[in-house]
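Hi team, as promised in this morning's meeting, here are the two structures we talked about. I've kept the exact order from the run log so nobody has to guess. The first one is mostly here for context; it's the second one we should focus on when we meet again. Sequence first, then the predicted structure tokens.
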Amino acid sequence: MRKEAVVVVTEERLTQTRRIDAQRTWTRRLAISWVASIAALILFEPVPTDANAAEPAWAYVTAYTFLGALAAMAIGMRMQRRWAYGVSAGAGVLGMLLAYACLASGHHLGAWWMIEMVTFGALTALSITAAERTSS
């Protein structure tokens, strides 16, 4: 005689499953957005106006902090942790600071720094949206 397993589906379990599915979806969207954005910025980056422009010290600190935030974000997303969305938003803000550093140093003149600013601003907004949509 074969015994059948009985699965009890509660409202709490359904809510938990929906939250996990939403988190996976938003993590995937955010990861793809980060990879595509950084790849596009690298691919389309114009030749520097002044390749020897002196970078302010705060720009170096910001750049290394940005790289650390990207690594922490990747780890958090891989582990499916919600704190990764906060780190992602922080990395977006650091990216906006790096865009300003581009302007402040004269490294890239013209509209390039604005393109970077908008790109990282959009990633920050997407990160905040992901955190809001997966809360609770």
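And here is the second protein, the one for discussion:
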Amino acid sequence: MLTFAHFTTRAYPTLHRQAEHLLRRETAAGCAARDLLHDAYLRLAPTAPSLNDDAHGYRLYARTLRRVLADRARHMQSVRHGGQWQRVPLTATKHVSRSEESPAERLVAETLGALARVHAGQAQVLRLCQLEGYSQAEAAEALAVSVRTVKRWTRAGRATCAAYLRAEHLA
């Protein structure tokens, strides 16, 4: 007989690789292998099952890791967490012709166009965060920059747009 605690400490590197392998196959796991493995441990530890051999321990962890992933997927698909909404990729956004735009939309487009000539990153961040409703973390991921850079570009872009609008006597 093998104790659960002894097996876990000895097999942790292998279990971590197993969790990484499971996460690579999942498309929307949204967690690290370490977190997944620790959640599985927290589910198994209260009962502390006695194990027949190493294979028994690996099977037990594999089944628990899959259950943790399934529970996380169910949780993320729940209506409470926005499971009914469909995320639209940035490339699929609808482009409106100039004749269909309102004066306010033309002003926003003109202001962002002026900002894009000065700093394209700031214009993209303002479009994503202010107009399309993305969080700063999502904008950072879409633009492949850090969240800190997105915050800095947001602040600088707002100041530049305000100065542009003041210079044009529009604000």
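Starting points for discussion:
The chain has a mean pLDDT of 81.
Residues 136 and 147 are 6 Å apart (CA to CA).
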